[in-house]
Amino acid sequence: MRFALFLAWAHIWRRPLQSALAVLGVGVGVGVLLVALSLANGFMDGLVRATLKAYPQLVLFSLEPTLPPLPSHPEVEAAAPFAATKALLTRPAEAGRGPGVDFATLVGLGAGGEALYPELGLRLEPGGIYLGAALMQSLDARPGDRLYALSATQERVELKVLGSFRTGNYLIDSGFAFTDLESVKRLSGLEAQGYQVRLKDPWRAREVGWALAGSRFFPQPWQDTQRTLLEQLSLQRQVLGLLIFLIVAVAALGVANLLFLKVVEKTPEIALLRAMGASRGTVGLVFALEGAILGVGGVALGNLLGYLLGLYLARRPLDLPGELYFLTHLPVEMRLADFLWVSGASLLAVLLSALLPLLRALRVRPGVVLR
């Protein structure tokens, strides 16, 4: 074993530039893959967090004519009755400003509604409205302005702009507004449709929903309403990982090419070693150790590059146009599991690529070569 390791190191240091390029190729491939996965993780997590800033984690729709009381549950942090409707928001023209018109989903919250979305800083009052930041810009509205909400049945309600909120999800910021429950009732004629619920752990929304539902409510966790989005993001992450892993495969072939050239170059030495009593296993172990050393070096370098680049992008996130990508910047989320499976898969790819030159070394016949 020590003799084989000595020869493996000697072979690697004999051609330092080629060995360094092989390690660098694997390292760059692994680093790029880790960064891409971290960006995909951050995009998915950032989009979910941005969405849940102004989107209910759990909705319990009432199945009874009158809204029943909500049962208690240890996972529930806040709950409030609600009603939602589509409305046309208009702002009358003023001196120096033209009129503003846009459609929005108007969410009316009852008592305790501010606690559902603590990140938004809502302070609801009768006849007041909070607009998404993009919606507020579209209407050219300012705090204190008077808006008119018009329903499909031509009902009209006057609302006072109390402020705006920004989630980072452009679809919400441009199409949602919050007001009090009574204003929505007057506008749409709807009674409270159920409860919106905030949980300690949003990922347990489905479990908690069915525990609270009984025969009085129909639960709708956010994972169901956002299922298509979550599935698309998961699929994109898998495809992205597969495509970029091809970079690692190409780098692994570079290691195989280096080892193959070494086998051809060292064929007389291999024959001499065999003639002096070295076994096939020893010869094969030399080239197996070379592949392992180059692979481990490349994977270690790739992990370092991926981690450092991930830290850099976390401190200086890439800006995104919210109209296209829903988020205004691209967050980064590095996961230990990604580093482990990428390292394992990349090392396996390098070792498998080293099998061909290793088999070539094992087939060397000392008698034929020395003759």
UniProtKB/TrEMBL annotation:
InterPro entries: ABC3_permease_C, Lipoprotein-release_system
Residues spanning the membrane: 21-44, 239-261, 282-309, 339-362
Pfam families, per the entry: FtsX
Record's bilayer topology term: Multi-pass membrane protein
One GO cellular component term noted in the UniProt record for this chain: plasma membrane protein complex
Keywords: Cell membrane, Lipoprotein, Membrane, Transmembrane, Transmembrane helix
Cellular localisation: Cell membrane
Major place of residence: membrane
Coiled-coil segments: none
GO biological process: lipoprotein localization to outer membrane
Signal peptide: none
All copies of domain ABC3 transporter permease C-terminal, residue ranges: 242-364
Record has Transmembrane helix as a keyword: yes
PANTHER family assigned: LIPOPROTEIN-RELEASING SYSTEM TRANSMEMBRANE PROTEIN LOLE (PTHR30489:SF0)
Family: Belongs to the ABC-4 integral membrane protein family. LolC/E subfamily.
Protein name, per record: Lipoprotein releasing system transmembrane protein
